[in-house]
Amino acid sequence: MAWFDVPSDNLYLFEQVIVLLSCGLSFLGSLLIIFTHIRWPELRSRPRQLLFFLSVADLFSAVSYFYGVLRDFQTSSWDCVAQGALSTFSNTSSFFWTVAVALYLYITIVQSQQSLAEHMVYWFHLISWGIPLVITVAAVCLQKIGYDASYVSVGWCWINIEAEDKLIWMLLTGKAWEILAYLVLPVLYLRIKKHIGRAHRALSEYRPILARAPVYQPRATADKKLIFIPIIFIFLRIWSTIRFILTLCDSPAVHNPILVILHGIGNSFQGGANCIMFVLCTRVIRTRLLTMLSCCCCKSAGPSDFRESAVSDGYASGYGSIEESRSGSSQKWSPHLAST
């Protein structure tokens, strides 16, 4: 391939500003998810715990991308390698955690195997942290991470453009897992949505009054969220895949400013998108945040201690809710999300 022979262009100032803003918003979004998870333990559920770990990966991605775009590397300096290693690890880990959340929901809702899903959590940690770590360490030790002339990045460092086997390492350190997620996520979430729809219709057949009651309004919102998860993921990530394909084809369109900006936003804004969906668009958490902000603004001395009805029945979650039986320690999955 001849693409590493073409000299790179520096990022335009407006490209840097837009992508840096996206990184900053993603950092704040991931931080807000982490904060709400720690601040309100009664709102935790297993899916939200997985979202917490996903947000940790997205947080490190945002930080590494921010530094890379700010520096706009021109050589494979030591900080270029360090930034490339951090972004490779966190970005690959984010792919695995995104699929892990979908797989957990699928096993719990569709397969109705709560114990299996709980057992899988340990494997999720091993795979989602372990595999990216092994790949990143191998890439650093073999000197595969470095300056890539912004062909498949936006100023940050990734796979060294001069490496002879760069295509294999680009696939191994991100693109293969990214494309796999494109295929797996829509299938899992569509099956989850179909299962919830069938359960709702079956219940409505025997309980038509409850089917018309407002209690099922959150379920409709939950269905929309489940559909938006793969849609948003694919929409954000597809631009980097397009630039990757253009790079393989030696197309000059790989440096198109609009495509570069979309790539930069897509790779860095995952944390911000998750925050919008599962914090700002989740009524229980949004209400608590607004109440806390109101108390801070008014300098009120009394703590905010209200309870949502959804919380009193079970643990609220942006993905779903788990009700714990008072008579024992067994858990029951409820196919609707918390009110949003």
UniProtKB/TrEMBL annotation:
Q: Extract the ranges annotated as region (Disordered).
A: 320-340
Q: Name one GO biological process term.
A: adenylate cyclase-activating G protein-coupled receptor signaling pathway
Keywords recorded for this protein, A-Z: Membrane, Transmembrane, Transmembrane helix
Q: Which InterPro entries match?
A: GCR1-cAMP_receptor (IPR022343), GPCR_2-like_7TM (IPR017981), GPCR_2_secretin-like (IPR000832), GPCR_Rhodpsn_7TM (IPR017452)
- Which residue ranges does the record assign to the G-protein coupled receptors family 1 profile domain? 29-235
Single GO MF annotation = G protein-coupled receptor activity
**Protein name, entry field:** G protein-coupled receptor 157
List the record's Gene Ontology CC terms alphabetically: plasma membrane
Question: Keyword Membrane: yes or no?
Answer: yes
Annotated TM spans: 12-38, 50-68, 88-109, 121-147, 167-190, 226-246, 258-280
What membrane topology was assigned to this protein in its record?
Multi-pass membrane protein
Q: Does the keyword Transmembrane apply?
A: yes
| Pfam families linked | 7tm_2 (PF00002)
Which locations, inside or outside the cell, does it occupy? Answer: Membrane
Report biased composition (Polar residues) as residue ranges.
327-340
Domain G-protein coupled receptors family 2 profile: start-end pairs: 15-282
Source domain of life is Eukaryota
